[in-house]
Design brief:
about 180 residues; mainly alpha; about 0% strand
Length: about 180
């Protein structure tokens, strides 16, 4: 059940990208299939380079990210079978990865309420329930709060869109000069 709930985020990832991936045709299915946490972070925060079609850019990100995952897994599997070494202390890597992703999202998105809400719900759940069983209640609380606050978050997000569109038009116009 925990695996199902943790991986439920991929459904949310795909649903939140439907508008951004509109018009990609069959490639949209591949991009959704290839979503990882890192790919999602890039697709939601990176700016499409001037002169490049967004659909091509998003597809390339998904394809390259999935290729890196596969290649890294194969290399890791082969190296792990051939080499025998102590991996003590490497367990911080995933934590560091998520911290880097969170900091990037924090800097890119002016709407910080979802991140703060996620941190608070996780901390409260960890404090009340303990480290063995805190994840599902934290995810449930985060989901409920985000659903309840969705009108406010959507309203706050729409005020940023015209400014972002103006910035992208200005950036595209400057790149042609």
């Amino acid at each position: 059940f925990l695996t199902l709930m943790v991986n439920f985020r991929h459904l949310v990832y795909g649903l939140s990208l439907i508008e951004k991936l509109r018009g990609m045709g069959p490639r949209k299915l591949y991009v959704i299939f290839a979503l990882t946490d890192e790919t999602y972070a890039l697709l939601t925060s990176v700016r499409v380079p001037a002169g490049m079609r967004p659909s091509d850019f998003y597809f390339a990100i998904a394809l390259l990210d999935q290729s890196y995952w596969i290649l890294g897994s194969v290399i890791g599997s082969v190296a792990g079978a051939l080499l025998n070494f102590d991996t003590t202390g490497v367990d911080f890597a995933m934590t560091a990865l998520f911290v880097v992703i969170a900091v990037g999202q924090w800097k890119e998105n002016p709407q910080h309420l979802p991140a703060i809400l996620g941190g608070v719900c996780t901390f409260v759940s960890l404090s009340l329930i303990g480290p063995d069983n805190f994840l599902l209640p934290a995810l449930g609380a985060i989901t409920l709060f985000l659903l309840a606050l969705r009108p406010r978050l959507d309203k706050a997000g729409t005020t940023d869109k015209p400014a972002a569109a103006d910035f992208q038009r200005k950036e595209a116009s400057e790149s042609w000069h």
